[in-house]
Amino acid sequence: MTVADNPLSIPPPALFEMAARVNKKRGFLFVSKVLGKHIPVSPLKPLLASGLLAIEYAEKTSGLRIDGKDEVTAGFLAEDHESIKKAYDLLNKQRFQLPDPPIVIGFAETATALGHGVFDCLEGASFIHTTREILKDKHPVLLFEEEHSHAVDQRCYTDEPLFSAADRPVILVDDEITTGKTALNIIRDIQRKHPRREYAVLSLLDWRSEEHKEQFRKAESELGATISTIALLSGSVACEGQPLDQSLYDDQPHHREMNVSVRRIDISDCFTALPYRSEQTGAAPFVKETGRFGLSHEDKCGVETACQKAAGRLNALRKGKRVLCLGTGEFMYLPLKIASLMGEHVAYHSTTRSPIHPSDDEGYAVRNRFCFPNPENESVQHFIYNLPKRGYDEVFLFVETFVAEESLRPILAIFSDREIENVNIVAFSKGSVGNG
């Protein structure tokens, strides 16, 4: 690994650790320590990461120096809650005005919250995130492939004329780019259907080779549009050896007795249910505030108010001192935002489809792994990583819809194995999985 650009002088170990993917297409993974996916983090850290990307983009676009940038960076690197919170409060008071209001797109599943956080910071912006959901009787406005992934098809759905204004730049947000092919795939799809002059790709890490950067330059010439890139850390990587095609790690809980206290919490009155139905499950579990179907700048206050209301309710019910808030799959931002409003001693991360090989080696990013069927779609396997034994007194598991007791048993067995006594299942919608 060679670092070529580090605009904020962030030490690389503060951003990521390495792990092995169980994937023949790409055998390694930069496991983010600030994203809230595989490694538990302070829920304010991912929001600060989004803010730093937004600041870097705003400065590059406007040519101006953003006030408070150093303070936000310092808080991002801090480990104590007070410093992190002070930096986030400073960031939250600012909205960056750009020459043209952008459309921000977050990539599923890992960067849905990261993209939403960038949208929060940009005045007049709109937001949508890609999804792997397939909807009944609804066609995506965009369809493209994430070539290195184990689940390659990505879609965007919206009823809004989101891409109709050709003068609006499109900002794509991902956690890292290694080749940039996914970004170019979606840019080509947008340009074919809704041509415009300006695109930007924002990522925490940018590992494109000179050959891959040349592909970006060729795409600019081919499409007649500029494609700028912003990253907190850029450089190059080289690897040798063969990727894993399987992991023999035992990822099933060994605790046979179910010893957890389970409470269901319905916060559907805080959020706006949508009528769309999943092709896979037949359910209508979706809520507007995720951004999966598009959000305008007018929606920001509504999302903030809904999350504050939900956080207040959960805080009133909270029993534990050491609390884990756990998102599910691409349903990341709303759980993250609510967790950020629940005070100290709260950790956040999310379940994922991505199979990673665990190891106890020093400095390795993934120490343990548990596999279970996603309660909202049991045909899809999900994983939880880095879940310590007796690490938390209480967990809040956030699901977009109400799920049946039987569907929850596998993940409850994992919490029992980890000796988490109090488990809250927090549902954002009353749509029932499997209700047709």
Write the layout of secondary structure elements.
Elements: E1 2-5, H1 12-15, E2 16-21, E3 28-32, H2 44-62, H3 69-77, H4 81-92, E4 103-106, H5 112-121, E5 126-129, E6 142-145, E7 153-156, E8 170-177, H6 181-193, E9 198-206, H7 210-223, E10 226-236, E11 261-266, H8 300-317, E12 323-327, H9 333-340, E13 346-350, E14 356-357, E15 369-374, E16 377-385, E17 394-399, H10 405-417, E18 422-427
Parallel strand pairs: 4-5, 4-8, 8-9, 9-10, 11-18, 12-13, 12-17, 17-18
Antiparallel strand pairs: 1-10, 2-3, 2-14, 6-7, 15-16
Helix pairs in contact: 2-3, 2-4, 2-5, 3-4, 6-7, 8-9
Structural notes for this entry:
- With 436 residues, the chain is α/β, with parallel strands linked by helices.
- The chain has a domain at 261-281 and 297-427: Rossmann fold, CATH 3.40.50.2020.
- Helix content is 28%, strand content 24%.
- The protein has 10 helices and 18 strands.
- The strands form 5 sheets. It has a 6-stranded mixed β-sheet with strand order 1-10-9-8-4-5, sandwiched between helices.
- Helix 7 links the parallel strand 9 (198-206) and strand 10.
- Helix 2 packs antiparallel against helix 3 and helix 2 (44-62) packs across helix 5.
- The longest helix has 19 residues, at 44-62.
- The protein is globular, with a radius of gyration of 21 Å.
- It starts with a strand and ends in a 9-residue tail after the last strand.
- 48% of the residues are buried.
- Residues 289-414 form the TRSP domain.
- Pfam families: PRTase_2, TRSP.
Can you identify the CATH class of the domain at 261-281 and 297-427? Alpha Beta
How many helices does DSSP assign? 10
The radius of gyration over CA amounts to: 21 Å
As residue ranges, the low-confidence spans are none
Task: Give the number of DSSP strands.
Answer: 18
Fill in the CATH topology of the domain at 261-281 and 297-427: Rossmann fold
CATH architecture of the domain at 261-281 and 297-427: 3-Layer(aba) Sandwich
Helix content: 25-40%
Range of strand content: 15-25%
